[in-house]
Amino acid sequence: MKRVILLLALILAMVSSITAGTLASYTVAIDNLAGGNVVAKEFIFVGEGTDTFQEGLKIAPSETLQWQFKVKNYERHVVTETDMYYKLTFDVFASPGKKAIDPLTVTVKDGTGAILNQMTGVGTFDLLGAFPLSETGQERNILVEIAWPDGGKSDKDYAGKEFGTSIIVNAQASQVPLDSNPNPETPEGQVSVLYETTTPWQNGQSGEYQYQYKITITNNSSVSIEDWYITFLLQNDRLNNAWNAKLISRSDEGIYRFENPAYNNVSMDNILPGQSVSFGGLASGMGTETLRNIGVGGSNTSLITNVNVMHQP
């Protein structure tokens, strides 16, 4: 009887062992199957020549002062390894403890002398630019010109130590496009800009595609924009000329400045409240690119950058 009991116990142990084996899971480990690392691309944005800016310089009516500097996307032999977009912000304000010299006009020009932006009095404006990806380093020369036009007898009211104007330039760079800061005193939609382009055609001689463009600026405010001008960025297409406006400058990176035609016609040189002005011309490209970084200004207003933009290709 005892032998039978022992035999049953052995069989039960074997069945339990087999069952446990069938329920066990397999685990496989592979150490260091693959590996790698990444290194940040070089991103270099430096300024040179800023030591030309001086403090305490004196200026009088009919005099002009100039400061210049440059921004670069390289340092020695190391060049930025991405597209680079930059924004220069010019802040013109009354010097601490003083009143601003209101007649002063600040003009920013590029290396060729083309006007990029201009303002009279105090305020803030932006200058946008870009360095496309390239194996060689690039740089932009910037000239800041401060002029005091001879305004007559009223100029004597600004004489003395209690008047002074200061200028500070801040710079920012990014791998993605930057926008101008909206003017906080400009309401939404004070100005609208409509950019219209025709169906492109291929030039039989050059083989390049061309189209006609039309830009319409509408003043939605209750104040006239006198001696209007417009700036914007159009990097790929190229606007070649203009009708009913003056093409003042076109930079290598695609920053344009157009001004009123100076016909001595109020309805064309000024944008009256609720009214529009239009200009156009011939362009090279496909006409599908939209205007960006638009600013509209005039002799009686600072640059308006909070603009409603519409594009109708």
Q: What features would you describe in this structure?
A:
- The protein is mostly beta strands and 313 residues long.
- It folds into 2 domains: 46-174, Jelly Rolls; 191-312, Sandwich (Immunoglobulin-like), CATH 2.60.40.290.
- It has 2 helices and 21 strands.
- A hairpin with a 5-residue loop joins strand 6 (105-109) and strand 7 (115-120).
Key structural traits:
313 residues, Jelly Rolls, Immunoglobulin-like, 8% helix, five-stranded antiparallel sheet
Summarize the structure.
The protein has 313 residues and is mainly beta. The protein has helices spanning 2-23, 266-269; strands at residues 46-48, 64-72, 74-75, 78-79, 84-94, 105-109, 115-120, 123-131, 139-147, 165-174, 191-197, 201-202, 209-219, 229-233, 238-239, 246-250, 255-259, 276-284, 292-298, 301-304, 307-312. The protein has two domains: 46-174, Jelly Rolls; 191-312, Immunoglobulin-like (Sandwich).
CATH overall fold name of the largest domain: Jelly Rolls
Number of β-strand runs: 21
In quaternary terms, these chains amount to single chain
Biggest sheet layout = 6 strands, mixed
Count of structural domains: 2
Could you outline the blueprint of secondary structure elements for this entry?
Layout: H1 2-23, E1 46-48, E2 64-72, E3 74-75, E4 78-79, E5 84-94, E6 105-109, E7 115-120, E8 123-131, E9 139-147, E10 165-174, E11 191-197, E12 201-202, E13 209-219, E14 229-233, E15 238-239, E16 246-250, E17 255-259, H2 266-269, E18 276-284, E19 292-298, E20 301-304, E21 307-312
Parallel strand pairs: 11-21
Antiparallel strand pairs: 1-2, 2-9, 3-4, 5-8, 5-10, 6-7, 6-9, 11-13, 12-13, 13-18, 14-17, 14-19, 15-18, 16-17, 19-20
